[in-house]
Write a structure and sequence with these properties.
The chain has 482 residues and is α/β, with parallel strands linked by helices. It folds into two domains: 117 residues, Urease, subunit C, domain 1, CATH 2.30.40; 344 residues, TIM Barrel. Helix content is 39%, strand content 19%. The two termini are 29 Å apart.
């Protein structure tokens, strides 16, 4: 939606997301949805036609991008009457939480098509604040296969939810039909599951799509110009998905990626979205962080019923008894946390292996995909774990912005602060190149030229305009692109 908007953001440090450096004393001119210019100094010559916004020395960055979320999954795995009534409100909270954390674009890697359509419409119309959503719609999976913790919903429940989370296909014809249907309903990517062994207690081996059915998904996606992302867990999953030509691989394998595979992965231009935080199941500090967030602001980020269910989930794994008796986990899915925890060191090291081989790594969180994967909270945690994998803060932030934009094929529109790009920007307190914790101190969010957080008021504009006119009369600013 086009709108009139002419502002100049000044008095800030600017993060160059293509070179991983900070540029000082820059001004960014925004007109409508677009970045008009980036200039050195206070953009003195534009003060009359652009409303000045003093950022007070904050660090201005491109909006953060998350390559893997489930924004329409409402943190509830028990179907209760209260869950039905809370679902819509919780989805809106998920969208707002992204903006609060400075996440202006997400790729939804599996959700309910009807709910996604409604959410995208509400965000685009300005009814609720939320990120730009690049969507996969329902995942494509084998009957009885992963995600084995997600049921196939009956007609009434499916209609209320807005579709299935996962469409189960058992033949090439079904695969082609469902892939085409997801695209017809607005999918910009296709998500497929390929996991040969369960993450659940007592889960054992799982069926995956046979080669002909898998190829039908790929062929249909390619025919409509769509790329395919694939859930993997182990090396056999990764190698099988690579043989099918999948584009991005969701979750770092819980086994070591051999050097030869990493080299082939890089040579083919593939992308790993490791989602390290959701795989760090053995981290006491992560569980403590989640508990502290829920204690401090749980009611502000979760509806009462989701909050109740998340707390119950935490009690299951933390206060036990865990593991529960087999008679219990046979009736109700329960994740095998020791299995995942044993694989985490491999998952972490695989990031370095892929990068060392020249491959690409994205920043995705799986927010919404687990009951504890809180929007915003998991993003900050994911950045920490990428640093733990050996990246510098500058490298991490490059991945989170321009890198993720390139992965999602929107690098010509977002991910950088340059003339002609969409004005998705955030301002954070502190220097994130010295301390990634600054990313948790988001003070301003602009998406497509609109202030969604930290919008200055009329008094601010009047005071700053007077100050800037005085400054310009004494010291003309210089201009030029960084």
């Amino acid at each position: 939606m086009k709108f009139d908007n002419r502002v100049v953001l000044f008095n800030c440090r600017l993060f160059d997301s293509e070179r991983g450096r900070l540029l000082h004393d820059r001004s960014v001119l925004v007109e409508g949805e677009e970045i008009k210019a980036v200039e050195k100094g206070a953009a003195a010559g534009r003060a009359g036609s652009f409303t000045p916004v003093d950022l007070g020395g904050l660090t201005l960055m491109p909006g953060l991008i998350d390559t893997h979320v489930h924004i329409t999954v409402p943190f509830m795995h028990e179907v209760t009457p209260r869950a039905f009534f809370a679902m819509g409100r919780q989805i809106e909270r998920n969208a707002r939480a992204c903006i609060e954390a400075g996440i202006t674009t997400v790729r939804d890697a599996g959700g309910f098509p009807g709910r996604l359509s409604s959410l995208v419409s509400a965000i685009d119309s300005g009814d609720i604040p939320g990120p730009r959503i690049i969507r996969c719609n329902s995942c494509i999976a084998a009957p009885g296969g992963c995600p084995d913790w997600v049921p196939s919903f009956r007609h009434f429940v499916k209609a209320f939810l807005g579709g299935q989370y996962a469409e189960r296909v058992g033949s090439p014809e079904e695969a082609a039909r469902q892939t085409g249907e997801m695209i017809r309903q607005g999918a910009q990517w296709i998500k497929v599951y390929c996991q040969h062994r369960s993450w659940l207690l007592g889960g054992g081996d799982l069926p995956v799509l046979d080669p002909a059915t898998f190829r039908a998904v790929m062929d249909t996606a390619r025919r409509y110009g769509r790329k395919v992302c694939c859930h993997v867990s182990r090396m056999e999953d990764l190698e099988y998905a690579m043989s099918m030509g999948v584009d991005t691989y969701e979750h770092s394998p819980l086994e070591e990626i051999p050097d030869r595979t990493a080299v082939e992965f890089a040579a083919r231009g593939k992308v790993l979205n490791p989602t390290l935080t959701c795989l760090d199941a053995g981290s006491d500090s992560l569980w403590q962080t989640i508990g502290s967030v829920l204690d401090e602001r749980g009611p502000s980020i979760l509806e009462p019923e989701p909050l109740r269910q998340v707390r119950r989930h935490i009690r299951t794994y933390r206060t036990g008894p865990y593991p529960p008796p087999e008679s219990e986990y046979r009736k109700k899915p329960c994740f095998d946390l020791p299995l995942i925890a044993r694989g985490f060191p491999h998952a972490l090291a695989n990031v370095g292996r892929i990068l060392h081989a020249g491959g690409r790594v994205g920043v995705g969180t799986d927010s919404g995909g687990l009951p504890t994967a809180l929007f915003g909270v998991f993003y900050a945690e994911e950045l920490k774990r990428l640093q733990l994998a050996g990246l510098t803060p500058a490298q991490v932030l490059m991945l989170a912005t321009s890198g993720n934009a390139s992965i999602l094929d929107v690098g010509d529109r977002i991910g950088t602060i340059r003339p002609g790009r969409i004005a998705d920007m955030i301002a954070v307190e502190g220097n994130p190149l010295e301390d990634l914790g600054a990313i948790s101190k988001v003070r301003m969010v602009m998406r497509a030229g609109r202030f969604l957080k930290g919008a200055p008021g009329a008094d601010h504009f009047r005071i700053v305009s007077k100050w800037l006119r005085g400054r310009n009369s004494r010291q003309p600013g210089s201009s030029g692109t960084p």
